[in-house]
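[agent] plan:
  1. take the single chain provided in the ticket
  2. run structure prediction with default settings
  3. attach structure tokens to the ticket
  4. add a short note for the reviewer (M.T.)
[agent] executing step 1
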Amino acid sequence: MSRRVARCCSCLVACSTLIWAGMLWAHTDAPPENKPPENEHPEQVPGLTLEEAVERVQRVAELNRRVETLFEQKRFREAREALRELHRIDPLDKYTLYNLACAYAVLDDPENAIEYLLDALSCGFVEFHHMVQDPNLDSIRDHPQYRAIIENWALLLDRRSEAEFAAMEAFFGPRYTYKRDPDLRLNYVNSFDEESFVAARGEIQRVAEWASDLFADPAPSAERPDPWVHILLPTYEDFFRLVPSARIGGIYDRKRTRLITRDIGPSLRHEFVHVLHWRHMDRLGQVHPIWIQEGLATLVEDIDAPADGSGGMEIRPSWRTNIASRLVRGGAVIPFERFTSMEREQFMGRRVSAHYAQARAMMYYLHEKGLLAEWYRAYVENFDEDPTGLEALIATLDAPLRDIERAYRVWSLNLPRVAEIDRPGEASLGVDLKPGRGIGPEVNLINDQLARTVRPWGRGDRLRNRDVIIEVGGMQVRTLDDLYRVLGDYEPEDIVPVRVRRGQREYELNIELIERPKQEIF
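[agent] step 2 finished; step 3 output follows
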């Protein structure tokens, strides 16, 4: 079995441990039409205590790890028994059902394999690109029902998408608007006003155009399209119900093909790169390492783009490249051979900010040299020989690894420093700001006594409490990080055009920037 297929098979086993978001939709999936044997259905428990719920999650994770190991060791009978226990815990988990189909197919039981495959489909399994490449299903390729699935690939995806979209519309109701994009195969569930929604779709289109060359080959076909993805642009309150973490700007829940974002700028662009990248990996039958996935996604977080939505974007240094430069100065850069081999658990563990920073900086290095697309093509073409991406890096940069790392360190040290939150003395708007509700930073408080101390208000216009800042100097700003980076191009006493949303109207103000004081105003 090729390494490509082996890595792909293990992915589906691991995916069933994901419990990220989608909690509000956990029971909207239709139950299987083809029931497994009755003795494999547990009695439904009306509720669990917190201790029981934790034990259940731990048991599911333990069983999934065991299933993955047993599949790798080709101990399929034992894997089937572990999957049966998983199925008793959660009869509607589509990945458990799919993996049961694989186990039965390998054990030469085609009828049970087909039954469980149909159950998986009815519970929302839509990873057909994986299915047609999975060697575990080879014994049922000629089964009439398997052939019917393949022949109706596009129709099945459309029907599944329509059902899930209708369920979301019923759940969120008239507070939201609902639109479809058949070209990009996206369903939008939107809480923002029309102007902000148009801006969000512009960001999606901008990223799609940027990535069109990178993820071009192989392209989806009309007969075998990519799955639809649901883009949820929730209210501020709903975001934290769906994603209960103040540290996360958005997620792409691949298990449910749902993107949820806190803002319509950096987080939306970041997560949509994950959407496009996973679509491409699925078509290829590859799973790329975490440094590549996050390196590409973080690359589009900080950009300069026309505020009029006319398209195009220039990738810029960011607070992450600030960290990357500090890593070089402190001698803390992880050697490329070790970094590119890092597993997800280690990458997302201790020093996660440093890992994200190095991943973005390495991708930015390739981008700055005009070699990003060339490196990616070389990587996917030789994935079976080197899934880490290191050999493609050496081949693309055409130099020994030691020389590449030395050149990268020199380049990192010469990157321009980007303005950040903690630097008194830099240009600021002279007001206290908070992150806002996804459209732009919001003026939190204007302390008139303090304001008069640092500025006589003799020049320029005044910001007001609850003004939402959406542009500075003609550049869009959706987050505080955006704002600090853009203000970093100015000096105190500059007068800068600032577009704000005040209630339902927008205004362009000419604001005199001041030196950022040591007090908590920005």
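[agent] step 4 note for reviewer: The first strand starts at residue 177 and ends at 181.
[agent] ticket updated
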